[in-house]
From TrEMBL:
Keywords: FAD, Flavoprotein, Oxidoreductase, Proline metabolism. This is Proline dehydrogenase. Converts proline to delta-1-pyrroline-5-carboxylate. The keyword Oxidoreductase applies. The lineage of its organism: Eukaryota, Fungi, Dikarya, Basidiomycota, Agaricomycotina. It catalyses: L-proline + a quinone = (S)-1-pyrroline-5-carboxylate + a quinol + H(+). Belongs to the proline oxidase family.
Amino acid sequence: MIRCIDVAADFEDSIAGKVHGGRRTWVAVKITALLPDAHALIKLSSHVLNTRPRLSIAFPGSPHPSDLNVLESGPTSAISAEDIAAIRDLHSDLIRICMRAQERGVKIIIDAEYSWYQPALDALTLSLMRRFNKLDSSETSKVQPLIYGTYQAYLQRTPGHLAQSFADAKANNYALGVKLVRGAYHPHEIAAHAGVSDKRSLSISPDPQPPVWMTKAETDQCYDACAKVLVKAIKDDLLSTGAPAPTVGVLFGTHNWASCGLILDELVDSGLAHKGERDQVVLSDDVTERLTIGQLYGMSDDLTNHLVHKTSSNTPLIIKYVPYGALSEVMPYLSRRAIENKSVLGDGGAVVERRRAGAEIRKRLFGGWFAK
Ligand SMILES: Cc1cc2nc3c(=O)[nH]c(=O)nc-3n(C[C@H](O)[C@H](O)[C@H](O)COP(=O)(O)OP(=O)(O)OC[C@H]3O[C@@H](n4cnc5c(N)ncnc54)[C@H](O)[C@@H]3O)c2cc1C
């Protein structure tokens, strides 16, 4: 991870002064890959669900600062000394990663995973945000927010969890970093919940209903509603005077054309962007400092290209999310993308994608006017 941060920072250093605006490379962290046995995180998740103060937010809830107290207080019947030692090591590794990111001015995103890991991942993310996204302190990072958590719109908890996150950030004076995605594990969540009485099921939800929405339309509606809340939060941040740095940063991760269209419309309607020549959506540096839209590398390049042409800004607004790591480590990620690509390429999508790829090859070989 440290090497990855250095590579990203070296790249940013190499273009400093040549391009306008701040540093735009991020490093994403998949926490379950950072410890020898991810089961320790499920134990921590169960422990915090049983011990944290109850809020009226659906499973897997929203983190509380007391969630990691068990790392100091020691083992219980639910979590062993070995598990605690593994999570302590993980926590100090994460702090080292964030310190390097702070030194080198590279943003960190904590990826979201299965719901049975989420209470533990949320607790770790909260502790990192409270420390590294702190505003008004001598240690304030020059890049803000430095740490981003991931919010999965397919979880029914997400609107409540997002509201609680904003309230905690405001009350404790730190910047909130939000990556909004729909969520990658829907079939697994349904299957695990259906087998909850089976000892082999990993689900830890106490609820009779699955934690995810049951229809795609509900997830879409949740994504778009949260997107509106986030655009409004950016607007409120820009209107409030006296903030030393952004108090909110948002990365929209999606391949959904309708959601991307809605985000651009919201930006224009709220006055954060305006329509320029050829109907382009023009964004100021203040807005792009707080907002990014991303697709996964190798997926939906037509959408990425469309967004790049549809928008105009001094600093890049549209990014690609690139897997980095040993092949054996990134294989589960790549196979999930292969399955996802199948659904993206259904309904004639494959024909469109083949045409787009053909046009791109012709353009690169023969130049612009052979492309069509
Ligand atoms: C930059 C980026 C970063 C990402 N990081 C993460 C991450 O950290 N963690 C993570 O979990 N995912 C992550 N993803 C993947 C993401 O969660 C989605 O799986 C993927 O992007 C497909 O959703 P979509 O918004 O692109 O569009 P769409 O193709 O419109 O939506 C597909 C999604 O809809 C939801 N869905 C499908 N069927 C149903 C149903 N029957 N009921 C309810 N909902 C349903 C699922 O979430 C499915 O993935 C990331 C994606 C991007 C682009």
